[in-house]
Amino acid sequence: MTTLRLVLGDQLSRSLSALSDLDIADDVVLMVEVREEATYVPHHQQKIVLVLSAMRHFAIALRAEGVRVDYVALDDPENRGSFTDELARALDRYPVKRVVVTEPGEWRVWEAMRGWEARFGIPVEIREDRRFLCSRESFATWAEGRKTLRMEFFYREMRRRTGWLMAGNDPLGGRWNFDVENRKSLPPDLKVPPRPVFAPDAVTREVMVRVAEHFPDHFGELESFGWGVTREAALDALNHFAEACLPRFGDYQDAMRSGEDFVFHAVLSPYLNMGLLEPREVCAAALQALEEGRAPLAAVEGFVRQILGWREFVRGLYWLRMPSYAESNFLGANRPLPEFFWTAKTDLRCLRETIEATRRNAYAHHIQRLMITGNFALLAGLAPAEVEAWYLVVYADAFEWVELPNTHGMALHADGGVLGSKPYAASGAYIDRMSDYCSGCVYSPKIKLGEGACPFNYLYWHFLSVNARRLEGNPRMAMPYRTLARMAPERRAAIDRQARRFLDCLE
Ligand code: FAD
Ligand code: DLZ
Ligand code: SF4
User: Which of 42, 169, 385, 400 lies deepest, with the highest CB count within 10 Å?
Assistant: First the structure.
């Protein structure tokens, strides 16, 4: 009798709890490429290649250790196409005494997994995912009894727990957060280091052929694939970031520049989310850079906050609030997703460039996701479920536990303020300040209304008008609502007319 250990495509860590007591002599590790995971939303082609190729490389590494890996490829004629059905088939191949898995990253899979024991009539041990820095249980304890859940307070608690960036009981440098120093726009002459590109090896090339064949209509370019697919490559990417980008990460975290798809961002999220890197080691690399004087405190604090703070916070929130979290629609937004989110055919340059980069790289950096596509979706009142499905499709790092709170909560405010205290709504002036997109756009951020006006400008005021009932009581929205109240009624009416004309054309 053997123990069957199922490893999923975002669990590619040798330290995985499901593998912790692996008995090489007796156990079987099961890995399955299943159609359902590529099609429950039609993922970007690069994302499918990344996950499947990384799975194949992980299996190769395990086999090199002498582990018995049962690997079911997408093309296997017997492949039944889902985790549950493939597990059922594997149970017919071996005399299995128990199944061991690590808890999955998505509610959808968690629900299926919890039914396996009853369905198959054998013990199924679902272990905690210990790669995270805060367990689901510990987050729930922190959240208990709090009226509002705010990342900043959770983050401080995590700083105290880990002792990272602490001087005794106080934050290093006397402040918890150096964000005010992290909002610079990019000087035109500042060079951005190129992102490391990993040329596809034979395994990846084979997967690319299969993906092009099986999923020809999925969004995204495949030829530009440059992701690492092994732990070694992910470690190279981490070293590159720590050396070349981290020192400037803080300063230019919110900056956007046409043609610079990555700026000083880490581009590590797919590796973290699939398990090729662990959050602990990524933060350790940043802390070491600070200790050795290779990066300033503001940059390191800003970076550590993204991982120790935001990443853990959104995961905690997801598991605390699912499944109802996904169902709220606080602003009652219901406009269908415009076609240009897929084609990039729009004359709004900031949107066009962000969507083109997304298609090319299966990546856009945080400010593009939040303040370009996200801000537009918010201002235009796009239906949360459609926007969320788009974000889940298009990014290589998109797994629902992290995608949903960021989209539903942070970008769309569809949760009514569970994640953030106010909507991240901004007019063209913000985009103009933080990017060079506007200089080459047919619209002008300086024109508020009429011919040539930037649509973000009138959509912004229109958004405030139509959502006044829901938002004007929010103290953090007091200033824009005061400005709106001072606006001449004819001007408000003209703004609403132009916004409605624009929105009608979207459909
Ligand atoms: P950097 O900006 O260099 O940050 C470093 C690391 O911090 C990231 O690798 C990531 O692990 C973590 N991080 C930063 N911000 C966040 C955040 N808000 N939430 C969680 N982790 C964070 N991130 C995903 O990993 N998957 C998603 O599907 C995803 N969807 C998003 C959707 C929207 C609408 C928004 C606004 C943000 C989303 N994010 C998502 C968060 C963030 O944009 C990405 O983590 C980041 O852009 C990844 O690029 P990077 O590695 O260069 O990150
Ligand atoms: C994203 C993805 C894809 C495209 N394909 C697979 C697959 O064939 N096999 C697999 O084990 N995992 C895949 N994944 C990742 C899963 O979607 C992910 O493990 C679940 O969403 C649980 O978080
Ligand atoms: Fe975007 Fe408006 Fe600037 Fe054009 S003018 S790039 S639409 S913010």
Answer: 400
**Ligand having the closest approach to the CA of 30:** 2
Host domain of residue 12: 2-127
Instruction: Note whether 161 and 181 are same-domain residues.
Output: yes
Q: Report how far ligand 1's centroid is from the alpha carbon of 269 (Å).
A: 6
Query: Which residues on neighbouring strands pair with residue 2, listed in sequence order?
Result: 96
Nearest alpha-carbon partner for 96 in 25, 5, 23 = 5
Query: Measured on CA atoms in the order 23, 24, 27, 31, is the torsion positive or negative?
Result: positive
Q: Is the CB of 256 under 6 A from ligand 3?
A: no
Mean pLDDT, the chain, whole residue set: 97
Q: What is the pLDDT of residues 406-431, one digit of tens each?
A: 999 999 999 999 999 999 999 999 99
Token pair of 264 as six digits: 């000083």
Predicted confidence (pLDDT) per residue in 426-463, tens digit: 999 999 999 999 999 999 999 999 999 999 999 999 99
| CB of 53 closer than 8 Å to CB of 61 | no
Q: How far does residue 305's CA lie from ligand 2's centre (Å)?
A: 27
Mutate-to-test residue for ligand 3 from 347, 448, 454, highest number of ligand atoms within 8 A of CB: 454
pLDDT for 180 equals: 81
* Mutational pocket test of ligand 3: of 352, 430, 447, 456, the residue with most ligand atoms within 8 Å of the beta carbon: 456
Indicate the pTM of the whole model.
0.97
